[in-house]
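Need residues for this backbone.
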């Protein structure tokens, strides 16, 4: 207890929050750069197939889930979380510098790129779990909502600026040229080193883990918690419908709308701007209504994104669509994380967080493959419509979790609309 109180001394908390914001700023530059330009690199630079784009989304999610499961076994045995988190973060970011050199593998370049990125995601699985446990230890719960809100706004603004600069620079080169991507991924790796440096500067005294498990098996305890299992199932259902469209957006934007690097940057910028504008609003909304009703609202917002995307091939229109998507995405990110913490008993929190991320990682492996498989059978318009309807169904699932209605029988739509009117219209 004395060690925990030492973690929460005002001076130490201020220092850790400052380092966390700097760490997050470098992190969003590193990860955002690779996430934004890897699809363009694969499709235009390496001429990858649609199936390869799906695998580039699916395989990292699977390996990240495996790492989360292994990390859950390791974390309760550690007296300090920082060393593992820093090491895993640094290894994950150093891989980014290698991505630009995969063309030297000739015909295997696409596969090597995807496997290297997936390996980075495996290390990121350890890093993400360690970071969550570290922040839970170092930032008092009463300050956490304000801290995350401030951190998200600042880091998103930093990411927005970096994407704009990179987009302008890359637009001056041919989209098929490898050299500019090589430099871009190297810069992302350097930003990752800065991320690891500021992570290492967090002050964490050595202490026994507060998450030590009891004698029964932690995984059994997690999956015997019925409210938590219900939350996992609802979140998984939503995430499949959400993530299945991710590779489709890249395919549509690059192959059908012919977006160049500057437009891809503008899409990312618009999405991040939407998140900046709405982070605080979602936080206030969740304070008034809990997490599940706002999650339903955010899911409905994201349900419009696939339909709006295929409504026009105009690139400025797609910028506006991404701005709108960012407004809803910030709610999904914030509210799912808040609900995860709310459903996770503190004593077993790493096991609960890991179980959640393992299940969602498996869903993240299946979803992109499902999206591209459907694209092979039906037209892009029909596929996007399917995933819009899926997200509407997910909104109903989240709303059901609030107790607005208990059964969906004949007249279930009427019950849903009645619940929406009672809870959302004031």
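Answer:
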């Amino acid at each position: 207890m004395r060690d925990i109180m030492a973690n929460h001394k005002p001076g130490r908390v201020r220092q850790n929050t400052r380092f966390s914001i700097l760490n997050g700023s470098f992190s969003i530059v590193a990860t955002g750069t690779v996430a934004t330009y890897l699809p363009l690199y694969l499709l235009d630079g390496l001429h990858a197939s649609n199936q390869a784009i799906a695998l580039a989304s699916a395989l990292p999610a699977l390996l990240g889930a495996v790492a989360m499961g292994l990390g859950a076994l390791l974390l309760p045995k550690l007296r300090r979380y920082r060393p593992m988190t820093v090491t895993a973060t640094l290894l994950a970011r150093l891989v980014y510098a290698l991505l630009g050199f995969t063309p030297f593998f000739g015909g295997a370049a696409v596969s090597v790129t995807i496997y290297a990125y997936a390996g980075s995601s495996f290390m990121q699985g350890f890093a993400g779990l360690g970071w969550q446990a570290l922040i839970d230890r170092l930032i008092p719960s009463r300050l956490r909502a304000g801290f995350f809100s401030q951190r998200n706004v600042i880091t998103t603004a930093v990411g927005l600026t970096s994407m704009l600069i990179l987009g302008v620079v890359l637009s001056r080169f041919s989209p098929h040229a490898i050299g500019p991507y090589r430099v871009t991924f190297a810069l992302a790796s350097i930003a990752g080193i800065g991320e690891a440096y500021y992570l290492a500067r967090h002050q964490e005294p050595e202490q026994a883990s507060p998450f030590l498990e009891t004698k029964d098996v932690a995984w059994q305890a997690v999956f015997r918690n019925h409210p938590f299992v219900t939350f996992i199932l609802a979140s998984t259902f939503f995430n499949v419908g959400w993530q299945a469209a991710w590779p489709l957006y890249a395919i549509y934007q690059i192959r059908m709308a012919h977006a160049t690097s500057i437009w891809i940057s503008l899409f990312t910028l618009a999405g991040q701007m939407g998140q900046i504008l709405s982070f605080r609003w979602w936080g206030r909304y969740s304070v008034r209504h809990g997490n599940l009703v706002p999650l339903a609202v955010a899911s409905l917002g994201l349900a419009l994104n696939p339909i709006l995307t295929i409504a026009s091939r105009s690139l400025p229109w797609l910028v506006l669509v991404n701005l709108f998507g960012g407004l809803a995405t910030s709610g999904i990110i914030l509210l799912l994380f808040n609900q995860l913490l709310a459903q996770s008993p503190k004593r077993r929190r790493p096991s609960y967080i890991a179980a959640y991320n393992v299940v969602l990682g498996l869903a993240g492996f299946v979803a992109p493959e499902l999206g591209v498989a459907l694209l092979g059978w039906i037209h892009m318009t029909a596929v996007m419509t399917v995933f819009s309807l899926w997200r509407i169904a997910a909104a109903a699932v989240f709303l059901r979790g609030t107790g607005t209605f208990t059964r969906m029988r004949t007249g279930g739509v009427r019950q849903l609309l009645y619940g929406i009117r009672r809870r959302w219209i004031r």
